[in-house]
Design goal:
Order of helices and strands: HHEHHEHEHHEHEHEHEHHEHEHHEHHEH
Structural class: alpha/beta
CATH topology of the largest domain: Rossmann fold
Shape: globular
Strand content: 5-15%
Strand order of the largest sheet: 1-10-9-8-11-3-2
Helix content: 40-55%
Distance between the termini: 42 Å
Bound molecules: pyridoxal-5'-phosphate
Number of strands: 11
Radius of gyration: 20 Å
CATH class of the largest domain: Alpha Beta
Number of helices: 18
CATH architecture of the largest domain: 3-Layer(aba) Sandwich
Length: 429
């Protein structure tokens, strides 16, 4: 089907602003009461609970093979931190700004350590069980034994990535013993490719963007019956791995005595690429907090694929290039031209809105966060920060009192960035 992009531009102020690369706020008029929106989703709370239980089963294995997960007993989780100096510097209020430091998740230093690692573990468990090598009650630390590495060696894993998903899938798969290939888009940073190669991962480089790397990876994987392709654009397994974050966050909020209810709404701002990471987290949060949580996706002005897909209702039938937008951004984790159809459809009734941010703002926010709080992130991970300054109209329109609101900017990556490269980011800001 031919999309009349000129007509969209004329009739939709949101589309016009996105095409002009302006920072844009899109409020979702399709937002439904959470119970209604969740009822239409193909996944349920039981699916998320199943994923959480699987991660518990693997915890002894992860603690054994990745020592930095041992202090938390093999559970891959990040800190929730207050950033009072940053909030003051940015002049945001009322309410409290916190950051969820997925930037510092063990193993791969980004939100992809949730979904990406989960999908590889899911695969390993199902293969080992089918072969009669593993049962539910076993101590999964046995998976570190050479006989399992030999077993997994028969199988291959492949993925297309802008970088961080490749790191997660690559590191986890190689550790288990899988043969693993990562198809990297042109946006992927050299250090990520180098790191993967040093771990025995095969890295295939493309001059094209993320969608092309995924398509080519998917095509090649199909030719190998022993190969599992991690499909970032459609995978419900990845999505569930991300969704487990919600109950972990709820525990952290409860520990801090931060309520989430009608008088204490929770606002969560999630940097969005193809949509699986932010979609999974937001879905998990809606399951837990229903109408008391308000989720927003944040994208770069040069790659607003999810905003375009949702605002037009066309999802993956449109890509940013159709609208003359280049998808070139310093936010490499978000440099995606076409959104996930699966995520777009699940989130259409659940998401409060989207907004876009320029690269210049991301760099400035990166510098200000380092100066005020000493936290070092990669550019993509700052996209959630401006959200707190953008929701006044949304709150007024829905009669939400922001006086006692909690705002969480999901800081999605950064701790693995080599210091010299991080210094370049900082200098830019
Ligand atoms: C991948 C990524 C995201 C977004 O996740 P998607 O599943 O692609 O939407 C956000 N931030 C960083 C740093 C990432 O690597």
């Amino acid at each position: 089907m031919e999309i009349d992009t000129a007509l969209w531009r004329e009739t939709s102020p949101t589309v016009r602003d996105l095409c002009e690369l302006r920072e844009t706020v899109w409020l979702n008029s399709g937002l439904r009461p959470a119970a209604e929106g969740l009822a239409t989703a193909p996944l349920t709370a039981a699916d998320v609970a199943d994923a959480a239980a699987r991660l518990e089963r693997f915890a002894p294995y992860l603690a054994a093979v990745f020592p930095d997960t041992a202090p938390a007993g093999g559970i891959i989780e990040s800190h929730l931190v207050e950033v009072p100096r940053y909030q003051e510097l940015l002049g945001y209020g009322p309410g409290r700004l916190l950051m969820k430091l997925d930037s510092h998740l063990p193993i791969s230093g980004s939100i992809k350590a949730r979904g990406g690692i989960y999908e590889v573990l899911y695969l390993a468990e199902s293969l080992a069980m089918k072969a009669g090598l593993l049962r539910y009650g076993d101590d999964y630390a046995v998976l570190a034994q050479p006989r399992f590495r030999e077993f997994f060696r028969q199988y291959a894993v492949a993925v297309g990535s802008t970088g961080n998903l490749g790191l997660s899938i690559g590191i986890m798969s190689a550790q288990l013993g899988f043969r693993v290939t990562v198809h990297m888009s042109a946006d992927a940073r050299q250090w990520k490719k180098d790191m993967l190669r040093s771990k025995g991962v095969q890295v295939v480089e493309y001059a094209a963007d993320y969608s092309k790397a995924v398509a080519e990876g998917r095509r090649l994987a199909r030719q190998d019956p022993m190969c599992h392709f991690v499909d970032d654009e459609n995978s419900q397994t990845l999505f569930l791995g991300y969704a487990v974050a919600a109950e972990r966050l709820a525990k952290q909020l409860a520990e801090r005595h931060i309520p989430v209810d009608g008088d204490h709404p929770l606002f969560v701002y999630l940097p969005c690429g193809v949509g699986g990471g932010p979609g999974g987290v937001a879905f998990g949060l809606k399951l837990l907090y229903g109408d008391h949580v308000h989720c927003f996706f944040a994208e770069p002005t040069h790659a607003p694929c999810m905003t375009l897909g949702l605002a037009t209702g066309l999802h993956d039938r449109v890509c940013v290039q159709d609208f003359g937008i280049d998808s070139l951004t310093a936010a490499d984790g978000l440099a995606v031209g076409r959104p996930s159809r699966f995520v777009g459809k699940v989130m259409a009734p659940l998401l409060s809105g989207c907004y876009t941010v320029t690269d210049e703002r991301l760099y400035r926010l990166l510098r200000q966060l380092a100066d005020s709080e000493g936290i070092h992130l990669e550019p993509s991970a700052l996209a959630g920060v401006p959200g707190m300054g953008l929701v006044a109209d949304y709150a007024t329109g829905r009669g939400i009192d922001l006086a006692h609101a909690t705002h969480i900017a999901w800081a999605t990556g950064g701790s693995m960035v080599p210091p010299d490269i991080w210094q370049e980011y900082y200098a830019h800001g």
